[in-house]
Known about the structure:
Elements: H1 2-5, E1 10-12, E2 18-19, H2 22-25, E3 52-54, H3 63-70, H4 81-97, E4 103-107, H5 112-128, H6 130-133, E5 135-140, H7 145-155, E6 163-165
Parallel strand pairs: 4-5, 5-6
Antiparallel strand pairs: 1-2, 1-3
Amino acid sequence: MSFMKTRQTYRCAATGKVSVNYIGVLSEELTLDPAYTCIPFYNHHRTLFKEVTILPWERFITPEMKELFALKIASHPDKGPLFARMRTRLEQVIMENWKRHSVHAFLHSSGRDSRLLSWLIKRLHRKYGDRWLGQVAFLCGNNECPYMREIMRYEGWKEGHHFFIINPKVNPL
C-alpha cells in the first residue's frame, strides 16, 4: 500500500499542528513510544512519538478515489468494471511504449504489481505473437524467487528463456 503510505497526514497532539510532512508537526519536546514497532499494519495510526499520530487516510482522499474504493472488485481478474478499465488502460500504455526490437528487462517479485504487469504482457504476447514480444526478461533476485517462479510458470513464461532467478540462495533479510 505504498500509495497510502506516501500520502499520510500527521497530527501533533501537543501543538495541534497537522501536516503531510512528518517533521512539520514535531514539537520541541517529544516522548518516545516504547510500544511502537515499525510494522505499519499493526500500528496504522501510531508513530515513534506518543504525541504524533497518523490521521486516517479516508479523511483526505479525493471523491474520485472514494468512488473507486466503493466499487465491488470481482474475485476473478477478468471480471468487474474497475479491473476492466484498469486492464484496458495498462494494455494501451504497454502497446504505446513497447518496442519489439528492444530488450525489455523487468524486476519481478511475487507482488501484485509484478503479477499484473507480467500477466498483461503475456496476454498481449498471446494476442500478437512472438514477433511482437521480441526479447523480454523478468528478473528476481531476492527471497521471493520461489513464489515468482510459480507465478511465471502459471502465466506461461519459460524459465531461462523469459524469466531468470538471480542468486536464489541469497536472503537479504
